[in-house]
Amino acid sequence: MPHVRHVYECPMRWADLDLLGHVNNVTYVDYLQEARIDMLTHHAPVRGGEELGEGVVVVRHEVQFVRPLHLRSRPVRVECWVTEIRAATFTMAYEIVEDPGDAEDTEGSAAERVVYVRATTVLTPFVFAEERPRRLSAAEKEVLGRFLHDGPEPTAPLQALAPSEVGSAHRYPLAVRWSDVDAYGHVNNVKYVEYFQEARIKLFEDLGRDREAGRDEWSAVVVATTDIDYLRPVLYDRGAYEVRSWVSRVGRRSYDLGGEVRDAEGSVCARARVVLVSFDLDTERSAPMPAPMRTVLERAVP
């Protein structure tokens, strides 16, 4: 049997949108999860891999946001496949696309293929009753092998915040909601992206976005890249976690933020790198960063 990409048609919701009218960066990761579960749970070409649909944990996400996606009545197309199978992990790649057959251009001819997001996810099977990872079975490797294709390789793990910089990182108390937790008692991987988003919005507020740079300048920003390493589970405990955020690089059009979710003992549960780009709302393209905004960010670099 030839190896194929799995295609999932994901319905869109009004609540998927952000303040700019684009699909929010958090929601894209939810689309990836829906496509992955659909591939492994409902459309596996052979039996034996049923536990891979939900009985896994995410080790790493790398998401590149190529262009904005707006709300429309038809579903969004998510293509996914497997790029690597190892003893206890496997890697999946995804593209969220507008397929040439999905729409027509203004002259009625076939439209070009448009890519909105490219992503990879590293996953490991997990024994939740014993809170430990496990190896892939031969049957699971066979299932995954049917979707095996070439694809991008995950990059190196994110670097820890230097001890000298820990004290200067912005701190955001994290309130874990009951609805954040999955059936196994762990916070769902998508929610971490939301946690880092909430923390950076508070970081911007505390940097004085309403005074020196202006609210509109801080709002006209889009996420270009999100990389997350998942190191240990976050559980339902409202007072036990915080998110630390810091500005790690400032360029002419973009800047990088680092982030960590830490528990009450200071152990790192997840680590993130997010690249944000200054955005022209009229042209929907990147734009030079306003000078007042860049000045505020440069002052915040540890």
TrEMBL record:
Pfam families: 4HBT_2. Transmembrane segments: none annotated. It comes from the Bacteria. GO terms for molecular function: fatty acyl-CoA hydrolase activity. SUPFAM superfamilies: Thioesterase/thiol ester dehydrase-isomerase. PANTHER family: 4-HYDROXYBENZOYL-COA THIOESTERASE FAMILY MEMBER, LONG-CHAIN ACYL-COA THIOESTERASE FADM. This is Acyl-CoA thioesterase. It comes from Marmoricola endophyticus.
